[in-house]
Amino acid sequence: MFDQTTKRIQQHRRQLRVRKRLHGTSERPRLAVFRSVKHIYAQIIDDSAGKTIVAASTAEPDVRSQVKSGGNKQAAELVGKVLGERAVGKGISRVAFDRRHYKYHGRVQALADAARKAGLQF
Q1: What pLDDT tens digit does each residue of the chain (122 aa) get?
Q2: Domain range for residue 75?
Q3: CA angle at 76 for the pair 73 and 82, rounded to the nearest 5°
Q4: pLDDT for residue 26
Q5: Closest to 33 (Cα-Cα) out of 88, 83, 90
Q6: Torsion on CA atoms 113, 109, 58, 34, rounded to nearest 10
């Protein structure tokens, strides 16, 4: 059985593997996803300038009021929709999707699909 340190090392290696192929530019910023047990967070980042352009999460009061729990697929869909709408409002249409070490499955996939429906391309 793996201990906690081995699991963290494997997660970090997967994250680096995904991240080495992605670099957010002003033309195509990076959509970074972080999920915890209670919430899901997403932000669009311009790595060249080192700035976050748009962000959304289930911890925000306006999003939190619309969902019962922040740790499920419905909440992830809402975050993706809100993030996509905010990005399109700022003139961003193409992004590079950074899933970190998470599988493209469940909440991460729900967020990505909702962001695509809102107008983002990746």
Answers
A1: 567 788 899 989 988 888 888 888 888 999 999 999 999 999 999 999 999 999 999 999 999 999 999 999 999 999 999 999 999 999 999 999 999 999 999 999 999 999 999 999 99
A2: 4-117
A3: 145
A4: 84
A5: 83
A6: -130
Residue 22 · residue 28 · CB < 8 Å: no
Number of separate domains in the chain: 1
Looking at residue 52, its amino acid is: T
CATH of the domain at 93: 3.30.420.100
Give the rounded distance of the alpha carbon of 33 from its chain centre: 2
Q: Which of 25, 39, 24, 37 is nearest to 97 (CA)?
A: 24
Structure tokens at 59: 């911890």
Cite the DSSP H helix spans in the chain: 4-19, 61-64, 73-89, 107-117
Integer-rounded Cα radius of gyration of the chain: 14
